[in-house]
TrEMBL record:
Residues 4-235 form the ABC transporter domain. It comes from Actinomadura rudentiformis. It comes from the Bacteria. Transmembrane segments: none annotated. The lineage of its organism: Bacteria, Bacillati, Actinomycetota, Actinomycetes, Streptosporangiales. This is sn-glycerol-3-phosphate ABC transporter ATP-binding protein UgpC. Keywords: ATP-binding, Cell membrane, Membrane, Nucleotide-binding, Translocase, Transport.
Length: 440
């Protein structure tokens, strides 16, 4: 296993476009790090620089404390799993998994042992004599993972490995990859555009936007304390709602005037911290709305009740979504439309998405009373995107909690890695081959 350290990494192509721009990131030994962001954000380019398939324009890349900027891919001892599986159609499952060992001229007995152990780990034993064409998508992905595992590499790199699978199979494979990484304890860097994968798989998540690192933290940290408007909009499904608001101070106190009504300022921010900004964006997650008719009087007092016109409802059995349109100044409406396009989302527009108890009787076309937990609201500067309510003490506490949880997991798994895998004292294999490209 090995830590991966990136310092001021830049990738600039011939036309001057910076695909990756000044990224510094430390992936700890044994950590599961997710690189996430919309299409074109630079996450796959960064992964390819780690493995050595892309040259680094400037900056320093270290693997196991060794600078690898000029080191060939085959000498980095990394295993990569590709989106398209990169399996050889004319070879059996056994020979696909064994391929890097054959290339390294390992003895037949060692090849047989390591492939057998890997197949047992991935529940592929009964498929070893089959060809890839006769396997399901999930089985092919497990074969690709098997070829990565069998090399006993210092780190695993995944480049959107589940994007070709249907939704049900993606859920199953997410659980398998998570269990596998925890069991092996191998440093893993995983690229995805799917924030659900990012939230469910990673010890930490690094969010990229247009080649720039926006925030790194545990999934809970990113969800509860987003650094800026982009992270808040990208992490979470449905996305966070953003309501334009102006500050209104009177003898009664200081309030935020929004299209859905008048809110009290959250305790975590003061009027002085908002300063002379004419307009701010109030971020409220869908689950922080409730049907006011189902809220107790005691709870009502801890939030705000607003009247809203419900345009559309979606009842999904275990949850009910209501869509509430609102008016916004044209410049802010345009900003939300632009952010929606960047996030490949149709939700960050001039409407609020509200997640309600499925017992709610609110229906489309209705004027409804909604209760909002305004204590959970975030306030953003629309010009810079900065989260003005970000609580640095809570961020640090969430980071400590995540690290403690990761250490407990590693301690629980210590000594439980299967025979031949890293972590049990077995001799690590030397680099066997350059990561394969997709076979024709």
């Amino acid at each position: 296993m090995a830590a991966i350290t990136m310092k001021n990494i830049v990738k600039q192509y011939g036309d001057g476009f910076p695909a990756v721009n000044d990224v510094s990131l430390d992936v700890q030994d044994g950590e599961f790090m997710i690189l996430v962001g919309p299409s074109g954000c630079g996450k796959s380019t960064l992964l390819r620089m780690i493995v050595g398939l892309e040259d680094i324009t400037s900056g320093e890349m270290k693997i196991a404390d060794r600078v690898v900027n000029k080191v060939a891919p085959r000498q980095r001892n990394l295993s990569m799993v590709f989106q398209n599986y990169a399996l050889y159609p004319h070879l059996t499952v056994f020979e696909n998994i064994a391929f890097p060992l054959r290339l390294a001229k390992k003895p037949d007995e060692e090849v047989r042992r390591r492939v057998t152990e890997t197949a047992e780990l991935l529940e592929l034993t009964e498929h070893l004599e089959r060809k890839p064409a006769n396997l399901s998508g999930g089985q092919r992905q497990r074969v690709a993972m098997g070829r990565a595992i069998v090399r006993q590499a210092d780190a695993f790199l995944f480049d959107e490995p589940l994007s070709n699978l249907d939704a049900k199979l993606r859920g199953q494979m997410r659980a398998e990859i998570s269990r596998l990484q925890r069991r092996l304890g191998v440093t893993t860097v995983y690229v995805t555009h799917d924030q659900t994968e990012a939230m469910t798989l990673g010890d930490r998540v690094a969010v990229l936007r247009k080649g720039v690192l926006q925030q790194v933290g545990s999934p809970r940290e990113l969800y509860e304390e987003p650094a800026n408007l982009f992270v808040a909009g990208f992490i979470g499904s449905p996305s966070m709602n953003f309501l334009p608001a102006t500050l209104d101070s009177s003898a009664e106190g200081t309030f935020l005037e929004t299209p859905l009504g008048r809110f009290g300022l959250p305790d975590k921010i003061t009027a002085a911290e908002i300063g002379d900004r004419d307009v701010v964006l109030v971020g409220i997650r869908p689950e922080h709305f409730e049907d006011a008719s189902l809220v107790s009087e005691e709870k009502r007092a801890r939030g705000t009740v607003v009247q809203a016109h419900v345009d559309v409802t979606e009842w999904l059995g275990n949850e009910l979504y209501a869509y509430v349109p609102y008016e916004a100044p044209e410049d802010l409406a345009a900003q939300l439309r632009d952010l929606s396009r960047e996030l490949d989302s149709d939700q960050l527009r001039t409407q609020a998405v509200v997640a309600l108890d499925p017992a709610s009787m609110i229906s489309e076309g209705q004027e409804a009373e909604l209760w909002i937990d305004t204590s959970r609201a975030h306030i953003f500067d629309p010009a810079t995107g900065e989260n003005l309510t970000r609580d640095e003490e809570r961020v640090a506490a969430l980071g400590r909690q995540a690290e403690q949880a990761r250490l407990r997991q590693r301690q629980a798994q210590a000594g439980q890695a299967p025979t031949g895998q890293a972590g049990n004292g077995a001799t690590q294999a030397k680099p066997d081959q350059e990561p394969p490209t997709s076979p024709d």
